[in-house]
Amino acid sequence: MLNTKKNHISKSPLQRLFKYGKDYRILIWQAVICSILNKIFDLAPPVLIGAAVDVVVKQQDSLIAHLGIKDVFSQLLMLTFLSMILWGLESLFQYTYERLWRNLAQNIQNNLRIDAYSHLQDLELAYFEERNTGMLLSILNDDINQLERFLDVGANEILQVITTVIIIGAAFFILTPGTAWMAMLPIPFILWGSIIFQQLLAPLYTDVREKVGLLNSRLSNNLSGITTIKSFTTEAYEIERLKEDSDAYRRSNQKAIAFSAAFIPLIRIIILAGFTAILLYGGMEVVNNKLSVGTYSVLVFMTQRLLWPLTRLGQTLDLYQRSMASTHRVMDLLDTPMTIHSGYLSLPTFDIQGEIILKNVSFSYQDKYPVIKNISLEISAGNTIGIVGSTGSGKSTLVKLLLRFYEINEGIITLDGINIKDIFLWDLRGAIGLVSQDVFLFHGTVKENIAYGNPEANFESIIGAAKIAEAHEFIEQLPQKYDTIVGERGQKLSGGQRQRIAIARAILKDPPILILDEATSAVDNETEAAIARSLEKITQHRTTIAIAHRLSTIRHADCIYVMEYGKIIEQGTHEQLLEKQGVYANLWQVQTGEKIS
To answer: Which of 1, 13, 153, 483 is deepest in the core (most CB within 10 A)?
Structure first.
């Protein structure tokens, strides 16, 4: 992995992009050839103009007359016919290269975004906890869009400038080797200046991409927390913070703009030197009969066609640097190594019994103070266990370890006697249904959210799951019933309604293992009773782990574990723990009102 990383560092963003786009080599070559052919035919008109001037001035002694066509009208007619062909070919190849480059941009953009998101989705939870969602959205959207803009325009511009320099340079040295150097002299200075310009512009655009990422991060956070902003009446405060980030982005862009805007005026001055040299020196050559009028006309037009397109190098390099800064960020995301790798053993859901064993398991977040300390417990297949404890005792961390959202530091976790590290992640997580206290519903219909874990389920199965979760009754009272849009994160529904839809979603998934992480912590007593009835049905014949603050929801569990500071300090049935008169008994007495805390 280290060697791979070094190779990536040594390569430029453009090299990495071309390597990524190797599947599009045929399309790239087609676009390149069409761009070159378009420019070749685009450069033909000055030659035709020179030939027309030659016909008008020399008539029967013109170059075309030497081919056997003596009549002036016929010569001009032939030039007209050639013009129609050349203009038609130029238009054809322009249409073709624009389609090819734009489709190439769309294809690479589409695949790059999907690959980046797919890779992002496979990364461990710790990666997301250390990064801002807005910054990641900036990479997936803005940065990839910058790449599209360069492929749409910039790649063709570079190819056509190179083609122009080669063809016109060759023509100059063939037609007038004595004056060709005057037109070509500015080009090395322009290219040298462009390279220096590119190197100086690169860090400026890197800073621009960083600033836009921070700005997107601010907007994403604020839109997600709009309820909190309104409830604390901090609208003015948030506007000021947004102004700071937006102004930082504006200032960063201004620096890049001020630098890039200076490029074209400077290049024009250099170009002027070559153009005026040909204009004056070539004109005197005609006066002294050392150069024909037709050839002089071609030289003047060709000089303009050679040098003026170089002024667009500034805009092209601007696009290039913006896209390379973005490409660097996208490729860095794709290069991010995965720390949690899938196992190799297939374990179909229908073969899973549900026996879970933890042996001497320890875990800490980023080498900090251990959250789980040498825990061992056994859950027999089909049994229901409860886990209780104060906030921060490590209950929810155990769930994340079972799902392999994080990797344990020490010990082993087995499912039906198999180390969970050896099981395909897809199979492991597919075998577990999770209902957490922080229910996430996607923007869509009630029906779509219930079927999320089983998209191919029919409508009757969805209704059946909703009835078991005691959600059917309230869903039928919604404006569009099962087709009601729940809003982002389910904000149109109450907490209890969201919780019951989440339970229905887990029921429809029908996993052999069910994890309930504070599934009734944020609901009223009536809703809790409804959820408890549904849980009583769905926990039958499956392994269930219920994490709860409300002890009433887990009192009938086969075994209850009490956690404190990452350790199990008590375990037993509800009655056994009450007899011990320990931590659990104390919590029970407080919650039932037998004892005032």
So the answer is: 13
Give dist(CA 165, CA 370) in Å, integer. 66
Reference 363, options 371, 354, 351; nearest CA is 371
Query: What's the CATH superfamily of 342-431+545-597?
Result: P-loop containing nucleotide triphosphate hydrolases (3.40.50.300)
Angle 24-29-31 (CA atoms, 0-180°, nearest 5)? 95
Size of the chain, expressed as the number of residues it contains: 597
At 449-469, the pLDDT tens digits run: 888 878 788 888 888 888 887
User: Which helix (H) or strand (E) segment is 235 a member of?
Assistant: helix 235-261
Which candidate, 512, 567, 590, places its Cα nearest to that of 387? 567
pTM of the model: 0.70
The CATH number that domain 2-335 falls under is: 1.20.1560.10
- Give the CA distances from residue 169 to residues 165, 184, 303, 519, in Å, rounded to whole numbers and listed in that order: 6, 7, 9, 76
Residue 572: which H helix or E strand, with range?
A: strand 567-572
Contact status, residue 274 vs residue 183, Cβ threshold 8 Å? yes
User: CA-CA distances (angstroms) from residue 367 to 49, 84, 264, 314, 376?
Assistant: 76, 74, 54, 49, 21
Domain boundaries, the chain: 2-335, 342-431+545-597
